[in-house]
Amino acid sequence: MNEDCKREYGKLYGRNLEVDTAIFNLTFGKVPSLVEYQEKAVTAMIAAITDEVRRRKPNILISVDALVGQVSVEQGQNSIEWANKGMIDVILRMDYMKHLNINLADDLRGRLDNPDSLNLLISNMSTEELPPGQKHFARDGKWLAETISTIHSHWPRTGVRFTFKSI
Known about the structure:
Number of strands: 4
Helix content: 40-55%
Largest sheet: 4 strands, parallel
Distance between the termini: 39 Å
Strand content: 5-15%
Shape: globular
């Protein structure tokens, strides 16, 4: 653990970073000061990277892959805020399930200043539909066509990204 971070955390919160980290790990992120500290640190990192990239290439599109809606600020990830503040242009929400979580996507889009900045990242690799002991397999073309059609019928101006895994 970085000594500068320990000092900074102690100064900001009057708490011990090592102790709070242990509590955080035992309580699945239930240490508000550490959650805030991590979220601010990750956001500062995203802002610094964005500023430098845009200084060099002002018209570049900046995106993040995220489990927005599933992983919250306990992990430092706050992509909705990053998009709304213009730090990023696109959120690629990893939705690798066989059936899209349309309600979650609608909720997330409602929290964005530009709802179309939320794109779905889908994969042909099996996930939750696996019975115990079964190896992963590639989903078929019919699934891909239906999934892309569903995305475009619900959100016609949003993008779709696809990861392809061969088995």
